[in-house]
Write a structure and sequence with these properties.
The chain is an all-alpha fold. 78% of the residues lie in helices and 0% in strands.
């Protein structure tokens, strides 16, 4: 089996997991707000990460020497993830996923400020193409700019910051340490955010399985994506990841009667093109 075929199979797993997490997020939103979803998801994540780390012997990777950087990274991720859950509840899923694809564009623009990486002319062109796609997807005007659209656009920015700070962490920290502090701090953030008013909803017997699905699907999605990138180059994997958009659009149409909007696909195609140009250019420079 070729590397491309193996990467494609892993990406199918990632697409299924991301789609499942979106469906589960909508299902639990009837009972839980986004902070409560993050709280219970993170508590389960702590158990899963520690159990796997103990079984594999990777628990020795957990170190406490980069706590400030872990904190900054996980504040960004917590904010982005809450915005994502809010967006999937309030606007069509295809719009959420299309705007989420702008994360690499934001990484490109923010990396020079945080990591002192150079922004090339090709990178700037890629960013402009991507932002043209954003304008087509969001169609910003006072008549249709909803909080859900703003949340979807905002989550991409915070996911980009998460990726940048993750890159800094991986210079010295192992994946087990990163995942442990991610789940731990987000459980604390979720508890403080959901419990500030003294009222935290507890998942019912019907909702609890969906919360478990969210926890497992999130970990599986990122594991599959990372595995695919370890087998094949990003220029091969990224077009496969783009399949998420038509997949979630079909799911939205079947389960939630959401329309298939051609402008969303057109904008997403430009976002994809911008990302693809940047990745191919980065690969050519190596």
């Amino acid at each position: 089996m070729s590397n491309t075929t193996q990467a494609a199979l892993w990406m199918i797993g990632a697409i299924i997991a991301f789609t499942t997490m979106a469906i589960a997020g909508r299902s639990v939103s009837v009972e839980l707000d986004t902070f409560e979803i993050m709280l219970f998801r993170s508590l389960m994540g702590i158990v899963i990460v520690l159990a796997i780390a103990a079984y594999t012997g990777a628990i020795r990777q957990i170190r406490f020497c980069k706590l400030r950087l872990h904190l900054v990274r996980n504040i960004c991720h917590f904010t982005g993830q809450n915005l994502w859950f809010y967006a999937i509840i309030t606007i069509p899923l295809a719009q959420v996923f299309a705007l989420e694809f702008t994360t690499p564009i934001w990484v490109l623009l923010l990396s020079p400020l945080i990591l002192q990486e150079r922004l090339t002319g090709i990178g700037l062109i890629a960013a402009l193409i991507g932002f043209a796609g954003i304008l087509i997807v969001a169609r910003p005007d006072p008549a249709n700019m909803s909080p859900g659209l703003l949340a979807a656009a905002g989550c991409a920015v915070f996911f980009a910051l998460t990726a940048i700070f993750t890159r800094k962490l991986t210079r010295t920290e192992g994946i087990t340490s990163i995942l442990f502090f991610l789940t731990l701090t987000q459980a604390i953030f979720g508890l403080l955010s959901a419990g500030y008013d003294g009222d935290i909803a507890v998942p019912s017997a019907l909702t609890l399985p969906w919360v478990v699905v969210i926890s497992i699907a999130g970990l599986v999605a990122h594991f599959c994506l990372t595995k695919a990138l370890s087998i094949a180059p990003a220029s091969t994997v990224m077009p496969l990841d783009f399949v998420r958009l038509p997949a979630i659009a079909v799911v939205g149409m079947i389960l939630y009667d959401e329309p298939l909007e051609l402008l969303v696909f057109a904008g997403a195609a430009l976002i994809f093109l911008g990302n693809f140009i940047n990745i191919r250019h980065a690969g050519a420079q190596k």
